[in-house]
């Protein structure tokens, strides 16, 4: 596949951070870990990866803004462009030696995501996309799965942990989905979950309580792979609302209906 200069910059930044994370992942027991909140840890590896990505991206495009998980937002002088970065999505997996984590980089232009990269350095799987250019994994085109009914489908989700709210509502959503599908999976890295929807490994995905850096690259990846994405209200404001439902045309619609069933007694 032909990549634009901007996408090449994003890929190079992701690979550079991935090499750093891979080294630290090999010595995960020796990492210095600080507590960011209940059940939500951030490591020195995480902050180092964001620094590497930020430096690489801003070296190439110094006027662009930068929004990352671990640092304060940088307002660019450009005004139209912003990098949206999660340097280590799946930090808890990483710290437990579970090889399910990724670097996620999205490029926003005038409030629209126009390019995205998601990279798992352990599996060496690189997902890339540009608006109007399709979606790829390791330069091979990917498409969302073609299943049309929930009963044949495997759906991804996130189960809230200590320090997260809405446990009761999430359990109700999960109960509703469980009764309709062939399987439910919770892998612990939302960016990769979205990449898995784009590549057909998961038929659909829903989650609340996300941040823009969790979703930016994945949203475009799914759409360029022929899929559909909305917020939980069925609108197009997932990045700002922090909730998302995704799948192909049929699964996304059916999943949205199921997760929005009223609570018992409502």
Tell me about this structure:
By secondary structure, this protein is an alpha+beta fold. The chain folds into 2 domains: 5-141, Fructose-1,6-Bisphosphatase, Chain A, domain 1 (2-Layer Sandwich); 150-259, 3-Layer(aba) Sandwich (D-Maltodextrin-Binding Protein, domain 2), CATH 3.40.190. It has 8 helices and 14 strands. The mean pLDDT is 92.
What is this structure's SSE topology?
Layout: H1 5-25, E1 33-37, E2 40-43, H2 44-60, E3 65-68, E4 81-89, H3 91-95, E5 102-109, E6 112-120, E7 125-130, E8 135-137, E9 140-141, E10 154-157, H4 167-178, E11 183-185, H5 190-198, E12 204-207, H6 212-224, E13 228-230, H7 238-241, E14 244-247, H8 249-259
Parallel strand pairs: 3-4, 10-11, 10-12
Antiparallel strand pairs: 1-2, 4-5, 5-6, 6-7, 7-8, 8-9, 12-14, 13-14
Helix pairs in contact: 1-2, 5-6
